[in-house]
Design goal:
- The structure holds three protein chains of three kinds.
- By secondary structure, chain A is mostly helical.
- Chain A has a domain of about 220 residues.
- Chain A contains 14 helices and two strands.
- A two-stranded antiparallel ribbon of chain A has the order 1-2.
- In chain A, helix 2 crosses helix 10, helix 3 packs across helix 9 and helix 7 crosses helix 9.
- Chain B has one domain.
- Chain B is about 75% helix and about 5% strand.
- Chain B is built from eleven helices and four strands.
- In chain B, the strands form two sheets. Chain B has a two-stranded antiparallel ribbon with strand order 1-4. In chain B, strands 2-3 form a two-stranded antiparallel sheet.
- Chain C has one domain: P-loop containing nucleotide triphosphate hydrolases (Rossmann fold).
- In chain C, a hairpin with a 2-residue loop joins strand 4 and strand 5.
- Classes of the chains: A mainly alpha, B mainly alpha, C alpha/beta.
- At the A-B interface, helix 5, helix 10, helix 12 and helix 13 of A face helix 4, helix 9 and helix 11 of B.
- Chain B: This is Branched-chain amino acid ABC transporter permease.
C-alpha cells in the first residue's frame, strides 16, 4: 500500500523537482520562452503562471470539489493582495505582520461573505458572490483616500520586503516562492480531499440532497470549502503581489474569476493536476498568444481576422467552448481518455 | 428640491436601462434555468450595431432619423443573435445548467475580445440627436431629455411584455413554464420553440438596452455590456428570478438607490449601496430568491 | 416476459379493444447510482382500470414517469402497438397519453381557465366535459389555481387531461391527502372516465381499488411480483398483506 502511494505521487514529485531546477537551466527555447529559461523574463513569466495555477487550484476547491459555482473568488485573491500591499505601505507593518493581516483578513471575509451567500443555492449563489466581488472591485477602482491606487494598482513597498524578493536579478527567488505556493496548495488540497470534510464535499457535489440525508451538515461543509479556497486564494494574492511587485486591480474583476473558472474547466474540474495545468496553460497562452499570432502563419488572413486572432481571450474563449462540448472532463480527462484508448487497441 | 428631482429622473432613467437589460435575463432564467452571461454580449452587439448603422447611413439624414433606423437594426441584430445562440449553443446542452453557463461565459469573453480586435478597446463617440442631448426645465430643475426617452421606452417594453405574457398563448406557456417546466411538457406542449423565442426576445431587449446605454454614455466600448450586465444580475436577483414585475420594481429601486447614494453620500457609494441592498434583500427574504426552479 | 405484446407489435393502429393499449417491456430506470426499476413488464388492457400497486418507494411513480419520458429509461414501451420509448415527453403525450401527476401539479399562479387552456386553447373551462364532470370548476374559471382546495386542484389536474383525445390515462394517487367525501367524488369521476378511456392508476386506497379497478399489477423492489384480477387480490387478505404489507397501514410510515 505505502509503496503504491509513493509510486502514485512520483510523477508529481518529479515534475516539481524539474520545475525547481529550472533556474539553473541556461538553455534557449525560442518561440516558447522569452530568452534563456533561467533569464529574468522567462522566470517572471513562469512564476506568474505558477501563481495563477495555484489560485486556479484554490478555486477548484469550490467549483470542482464541492460543486459550488462562485463568481466571486477574485474577491479573496484581491483581499490577500491588497491587504498585504496596504499593510506594508500605509500601515507600515513589518512583513510577517502584514502577511498575517492579509491571511486572517481574507479568511474572516470568506466567513462573512460565504455565510451570507450560502443562504441561497445554485445559480443565485453565483450571482450573489458576483455582486460581492463586484462591490470590492468598485471600491478598489474608486481608490478611497488614495489607499488602493485605483486603476494604477498599488505598488509593493520594496523597503519592507527582503532584498531577495525584489529586483530583476532576484527573479529566481520569486519563481521559487511561486513554486512553494503551488506546493502549499497541492498539500492542502490533497489533505482536504482525503479528509472526512473532503468526502462530504464530494457527496455534496454529486447530490446535495442525498448528502444532507446522509447526515452531512451541508451548510458548514460548503462554508468550509469557501474558507479553505479563500485562504489559499488569499495566500495566492499575497504571492501574486510579491511576484508582480504590487497589487493589480485586474485581480479584483469579474473577468479574473471567470478566467479562473475557464482555467479549471480547461484543465479538468475536480482534478488537482488538472486545475494546475489549466491555470498554467491559460496564463501562458494569455501572455504568449499575442506574440504567436504575429509569427507569420496568419499573414494570409484579412487584416480584421488578424486583429481578432491577436486577442488572446478570443482564442481562449472559443477553445473553452469547444472543450465544454467535446471534452467536458477537461484536458487531463481528455489525456486520460486518449491513454486508455491507446491501451485498448 | 431641483437636485432631488434631477436625481429621481436620472435614477428612473438608469432603472429603465437596467430593466431593459434585466428583463430578458430574468425570463430566460425563470423559464430555462440558464444564467446567460452572453447577455452582455447581446447588449454590446446592440450598441455596436447601432453605432455602425448611424455612422454608415448618409449623413444627410438627421441624427434622429439615423438613430431610429439604428434602433430597428439593433433590435433585429439582437434577436437574430439570441436565436442563434439558443439554437446552436444552448439547446444541445439542454438541462446541463452548469455547462450552459460555461458556454455563455466563453461566448461573452470571446465576443468582447473580438469587438476589441475589430474596433479597438477605446470608447468610440456616438452621435446623439440634439433634442436628446438637451434639457427640459420642470419645476425649476433642468432635466436631461434622454432620461425621459429611456423611461418611455422601458415603460413601452414593460407593458408590451406584460401584454405578451397575459394575453397570448406564448405568454401562457412562458408563465406556466416558469412555474413548472416539466409539467408543461407533460401536458404535451413542446417548450423548445418557446425557449428559442424567449432567447430572441431577450436578445432584442438586451440589444435595445445596449444601444440606449451607449446614448446615455455618449460612447460605445467593448466593456460596456459587461458593466451593465452586473447591474442586470443584481436586479434579477433582487426582483426574484422569472418575475417581470419584480424585475421592473427592482430595476427602479436599484437605479434610484444608486443615484441617491451617489449624490447624498459620495460618488461611488451608489454602486456599493446597490450591493448592500442585495445583501439586505438576501438576509431578509432568502427564499424568494431561489427562483421558480427547484 | 410477456407474450401478448408481440402479438400486437406490428400494425400502426389496431382497432380499440384489440390487445393492450399500453405495453411495457423490460423497463429499467437508473437514477445516479440506484437502479430503481429492474426490468418491469406489464400491459394495460384497452378497457377499464388497471391498478399499479406496491409498497412506498417500490417505483410506481417512477414507472409512470418513465412511460412518458420524464425519467431516464431503457426498455420497450408501446402505445397501441407503436413504440414510443425513443420519443420526447411532449410527443408521447400528444400520441395519446394523459398524465395526472402525484400532488396534482396545477399551475398555482395561473387561473383555472388558463390551466385548462394550456391543453385546449379554444375552450378552456367552457369545454362541455368540464361542465359535465366538474361543474364546480366552471364558476371558478377566473380563480387562481393555487388558491383552490386540494380536491378542486385534483379536479383541475384531471380536467386538463380530459380536454384532449387520449388512448390511456396515467393517474398517480389522485386521492392522496383528500377527505373521505372527496375520495368518493374522485372515485366516481374516475369510474365515469374509465367507461371511455382505459386508466393506469397508482393508488394506495385499497377499497377504492376494489371499487373501480379491474386488474392489478404489483411492484416490489423495482420488479413486477404479481398480476391478476383486482377483486381476487383484495379478497385474499394473506396475499394482500404479503404483497402490499406496509402500505396497508394508514400511517404509511416506512
Amino acid at each position: 500500500m505505502r509503496s503504491a502511494a509513493v509510486l502514485k505521487a512520483l510523477p508529481g514529485v518529479v515534475i516539481l523537482a524539474v520545475l525547481a531546477y529550472l533556474p539553473y537551466v541556461p538553455a534557449q527555447l525560442p518561440g516558447i520562452l522569452p530568452g534563456r529559461v533561467n533569464g529574468p523574463g522567462s522566470l517572471q513569466l513562469l512564476a506568474t503562471c505558477l501563481v495563477i495555477a495555484g489560485i486556479a487550484l484554490s478555486y477548484d476547491v469550490l467549483f470542482g470539489r464541492t460543486g459550488l459555482l462562485s463568481f466571486g473568488h477574485a474577491l479573496f485573491v484581491a483581499a490577500g493582495s491588497y491587504l498585504l500591499t496596504i499593510s506594508l505601505a500605509d500601515w507600515s507593518l513589518p512583513l510577517p505582520a502584514a502577511v498575517t493581516v492579509a491571511v486572517v483578513g481574507t479568511t474572516l471575509l470568506a466567513l462573512v461573505v460565504g455565510g451570507i451567500a450560502l443562504r441561497v443555492g445554485g445559480i443565485a449563489f453565483a450571482m450573489v458572490t458576483l455582486a460581492f466581488a463586484q462591490a470590492a472591485s468598485i471600491i478598489v477602482l474608486r481608490n478611497p483616500s488614495g489607499v488602493t491606487g485605483g486603476e494604477e494598482g498599488k505598488s509593493l513597498n520594496r523597503s519592507a520586503v527582503p532584498g531577495l524578493l525584489v529586483g530583476v536579478a532576484n527573479a529566481p527567488y520569486r519563481y521559487w516562492l511561486a513554486l512553494a505556493f503551488v506546493v502549499l496548495c497541492l498539500l492542502v488540497v490533497t489533505l482536504l480531499v482525503r479528509s472526512r470534510a473532503g468526502h462530504a464535499m464530494a457527496a455534496i457535489r454529486e447530490n446535495e440532497g442525498r448528502a444532507a440525508v446522509l447526515g452531512f451538515d451541508t451548510y458548514r461543509v460548503k462554508l468550509l470549502a469557501i474558507v479553505v479556497g479563500a485562504f489559499l486564494g488569499g495566500v495566492g494574492g499575497i504571492v501574486h503581489a510579491v511576484v508582480l511587485g504590487g497589487s493589480n486591480p485586474h485581480v479584483t474583476t469579474t473577468e479574473f474569476t471567470l478566467a479562473l473558472l475557464i482555467m479549471v474547466v480547461l484543465g479538468g474540474a475536480g482534478s488537482t493536476w488538472g486545475a494546475l495545468l489549466g491555470g498554467f496553460l491559460y496564463t501562458y497562452a494569455d501572455a504568449r498568444l499575442v506574440e504567436l499570432s504575429g509569427a507569420g502563419f496568419a499573414d494570409a488572413l484579412p487584416e480584421v481576422a488578424q486583429q481578432v486572432l491577436a486577442e488572446p481571450l478570443f482564442v481562449l474563449g472559443l477553445f473553452f467552448i469547444v472543450i465544454v462540448y467535446f471534452a467536458p472532463a477537461g484536458l487531463t480527462g481528455l489525456g486520460g481518455r486518449l491513454i486508455r484508448r491507446g491501451r485498448a487497441t | 428640491m431641483t437636485d432631488f428631482l434631477l436625481i429621481m429622473v436620472t435614477g428612473l432613467g438608469l432603472g429603465a436601462l437596467y430593466f431593459l437589460a434585466a428583463s430578458g435575463l430574468s425570463i430566460i432564467y425563470g423559464l430555462m434555468g440558464v444564467l446567460n452571461f452572453a447577455h452582455g454580449a447581446f447588449m454590446m452587439a446592440g450598441s455596436y450595431a447601432g453605432w455602425l448603422t448611424m455612422s454608415n447611413l448618409p449623413s444627410g439624414l438627421s441624427v434622429a432619423t439615423r438613430l431610429l433606423v439604428a434602433v430597428v437594426v439593433a433590435i433585429a441584430v439582437g434577436a437574430v443573435i439570441g436565436l442563434l445562440v439558443e439554437v446552436v449553443l444552448i439547446r444541445p446542452l439542454y438541462r446541463h445548467h452548469i455547462q450552459q453557463v460555461l458556454v455563455t461565459v466563453g461566448l461573452s469573453l470571446a465576443s468582447v475580445a473580438a469587438a476589441q480586435g475589430i474596433w479597438g478597446a477605446d470608447p468610440r463617440t456616438v452621435e446623439k440627436p440634439e433634442w436628446m442631448g438637451g434639457t427640459t426645465v420642470v419645476l425649476g430643475a433642468r432635466l436631461p431629455n434622454d432620461r425621459f426617452v429611456f423611461i418611455l421606452v422601458a415603460l413601452a417594453v414593460f407593458l408590451g411584455l406584460l401584454a405578451l405574457l397575459h394575453y397570448t398563448r406564448l405568454g401562457l406557456i412562458i408563465r406556466a413554464g416558469v412555474e413548472n417546466r416539466t409539467m408543461v411538457e407533460a401536458l404535451g406542449i413542446n417548450v423548445h420553440s418557446t425557449f428559442t423565442i424567449v432567447f430572441a426576445l431577450g436578445g432584442a431587449a438586451a440589444a435595445l438596452a445596449g444601444l440606449l446605454y451607449s446614448q446615455y454614455a455618449g460612447t460605445v466600448s467593448p466593456a460596456q455590456g459587461g458593466s451593465l450586465l452586473i447591474y442586470a444580475f443584481i436586479v434579477v436577483v433582487i426582483g426574484g428570478m422569472g418575475s417581470l414585475v419584480g424585475t421592473a420594481v427592482a430595476a427602479v429601486a436599484v437605479g434610484l438607490v444608486q443615484q441617491l447614494a451617489n449624490f447624498y453620500a459620495a460618488s461611488g457609494v451608489g454602486d456599493l449601496s446597490v450591493v448592500l441592498l442585495l445583501a439586505l434583500v438576501l438576509l431578509l427574504r432568502p427564499t424568494s430568491l431561489k427562483g421558480a426552479h427547484a | 416476459m410477456t407474450d401478448m405484446t408481440t402479438a400486437t407489435g406490428q400494425g400502426s393502429a389496431p382497432p380499440p379493444g384489440d390487445g393492450p393499449v399500453l405495453a411495457v417491456e423490460d423497463l429499467h430506470v437508473r437514477y445516479g447510482g440506484s437502479h430503481v426499476l429492474q426490468g418491469v413488464s406489464f400491459e394495460v388492457p384497452a378497457t377499464g382500470v388497471t391498478a399499479l400497486l406496491g409498497r412506498n418507494g417500490v417505483g410506481k411513480t417512477t414507472t409512470l414517469k418513465a412511460i412518458i419520458g420524464l425519467a431516464p429509461r431503457t426498455g420497450r414501451i408501446s402505445l397501441r402497438g407503436k413504440d414510443i420509448q425513443g420519443d420526447a415527453t411532449p410527443r408521447i403525450i400528444r400520441a395519446g397519453i394523459g398524465y395526472v401527476p402525484e400532488d396534482r401539479e396545477v399551475f398555482g399562479g395561473l387561473t383555472v381557465d388558463e390551466n385548462l387552456r394550456l391543453v385546449d386553447p379554444d375552450q378552456g373551462v367552457n369545454a362541455p366535459i368540464v361542465g359535465r364532470l366538474f361543474p364546480d370548476l366552471v364558476s371558478r374559471g377566473k380563480q387562481r389555481a393555487g388558491t383552490l382546495s386540494g380536491g378542486q386542484q385534483q379536479m383541475v389536474s384531471l380536467a386538463r387531461v380530459l380536454l384532449r383525445e387520449t388512448s390511456v390515462l396515467l393517474i398517480d394517487e389522485p386521492t392522496k391527502g383528500l377527505a373521505p367525501k372527496l375520495v368518493t367524488e374522485v372515485a366516481d369521476v374516475l369510474a365515469e372516465i374509465a367507461q371511455r378511456t382505459p386508466i393506469l392508476l397508482v393508488e394506495q386506497n385499497l377499497p377504492l381499488v376494489r371499487r373501480i379497478a379491474d386488474t392489478v399489477v404489483v411492484l416490489d423492489a423495482g420488479q413486477v411480483v404479481h398480476r391478476g384480477g383486482a377483486a381476487e387480490l383484495v379478497a385474499d387478505q394473506e396475499l394482500t398483506r404479503e404483497l402490499l404489507g406496509v402500505s396497508m397501514r394508514r400511517d404509511g410510515a416506512a
